[in-house]
Amino acid sequence: MDANVRSAEKSSGYGSEREIFDPVIHYGIDDDLIDISENERRQGVNNDNILVWREEDDNPHDSHRLGGRQVEGLESTPKRLGHLISWICKSINSPVLAWWAVRQNGLHPRLLHQIQWHLRHSKHLTERARHLWRLIVEHHQDPRNHRWNGEWFDFKKLIDAEGWTPNALREFRRFATPKLQISLPSGLGKSMPPSASWEEIDYDDLGRFEVAFLDRHNEELQVPDSQLSQVFGILEQQLTVVSSLLEDVDVKFFDTPTCYPGRDIGGRERVTSTAEPMIWFVQLFDRMASIWPEIARAHATIWSMDDQFFFRKLKLYAFSKVDVFDADHVAQTVLGLSQEALWDTDVVRELLFLLTDRWAQFSNDDQRRIAERIIAGPDQQPHWSDEEFHETRDRIAAKYARYLEIQGCNLDCDLSQRLKEIIGGIPEWSDGWATSTVTIHGSRVGWVGTDETPDKLMSAPVNEVISKAKEDHQRDFDSFTDKRPFAGLVKTNPRKALSALTLEGKRGEYPTAFWNSMISDIPADIPPE
User: How many C-beta atoms lie closer than 10 Å to residue 493's C-beta?
Assistant: First the structure.
């Protein structure tokens, strides 16, 4: 029925024997034009589309008026299209329909309203089906997904003309709200609908689920002290929304900017305009901590260490503020961190900078307890074998503890001796391993989604797979796309993926992210051999 689906471009899978799908062959009808040029499309040349108004349809006049607008979702439609809406909603339990909905540049409000009604009342939809449909509806209901978003420039004009009025603050809250975007899937899914059930289907089978939030387009905006607390509070709420959206779209690997952009940066730090929300948030927090430390403390106190995306890192940074948190409180909180939070590599800079900056203020007892916990190292991870666990644990613990010593954090004699013994058991140890623990080469943040295209890894030698996968992950500065080519390799060629990780293990390297992917992304139907 949808001419745009029938006339879509060919798509293909990955690998030397990749499957090619041509929608014209599978869905084309006799009267369809083939190879419509882009110029012809701009002139309105298209194949017959049953899902749009046709000359023989009735034309309800209720929607053609400048005033007295109909209730959204209850608009009058031609009878034929109304019947199609009913049929579509009765087929809501099909993943193919969800895949089709993702492809649309907007859905009619009445269709969206009916889909929501069925989501509330259907007794046959699984929990996963409801969840994915809710995300698709959320994407289509946000008008910002159907137009260029230049609201920041309009807002700047409003501030210049009227200042930070109550209306301006409400407007800021409205357009600063994060949004969910869904674009076409990659690979075969670009034109081939999924055949899996709801329980087997992955997000990437339907589309690329992304999260976007406040983009200031490199345009600065001054916030007066009188409005600082309210603007800060709005941004804090939006970061919370971003975290919940990231959980909803199942983003597992996510990088945020450092809270210390001028400290221990290897080379020139690269930050795109889409990295600004958290950076701006940190800048406003610095002002809050300086002007109203009590208010800053009230905000930071409620930030959860369980939030892996933003607030774990931000809270550790807030603890570095001497006027905001006293040393005893900081030490007790650090000692109370879960193993997951303490050894989270995404916050290693904030943790170690906090400890080195405030070490002298901690009591001798707290210093010893913190050092003991660090030297004890992380817990065994699922992908660490019993044989390699002790070596891996000691190497990680030595990096953290030795960094503290290098920065002048004195350890008790017995603990310092224990650290020397650990380092003595690590082949080819270098203090550079410790200092490089906190060194970064830029940060990336912005649009959030996943891209599992494994093309570069498919043709790479096995001994170069991991290094190339890391390069791809670090290179994506221009988008918030979570590049996961290794996940794509696991799904298309798990044998090569496992061989690459095995080689890394022989070098003493066990990249957590890639082992997690090996465990969670390997196809269920893969033969044991």
Answer: 18
CA 276 to CA 288: how far, in whole Å?
18
Based on the structure, what is the number of domains in the chain?
Answer: 3
Residue-number span of the structural domain to which 516 is assigned: 452-521
pLDDT in tens, 339-365: 999 999 889 999 999 999 999 999 999
Query: What pairing do the DSSP bridges indicate for beta strands 481-483 and 449-451?
Result: parallel
One domain for residues 246 and 181: no
Whether 103 and 249 share a structural domain: no
Contact 487, 251 (CB under 8 A): no
Q: pTM score, two decimals? A: 0.77
* Six token digits for residue 127: 């929990």
Q: Which long-range contacts (CB under 8 A, 24 or more apart) does 318-326 make?
A: 318/285, 318/289, 319/354, 319/358, 320/350, 320/353, 320/354, 320/357, 320/358, 321/289, 321/293, 321/296, 322/358, 322/361, 323/289, 323/290, 323/293, 324/289, 324/293, 324/296, 324/297, 324/300, 325/297, 325/300
Does residue 296 sit in the same domain as residue 431? yes
Residue 167 lies in a domain: no
DSSP H or E stretch at residue 67: none
Q: Are residues 300 and 381 in the same domain?
A: yes
244 & 304 share domain: yes
* Residue-wise pLDDT tens digits, 358-411: 999 999 999 999 999 999 999 988 877 888 888 889 999 999 999 999 999 999
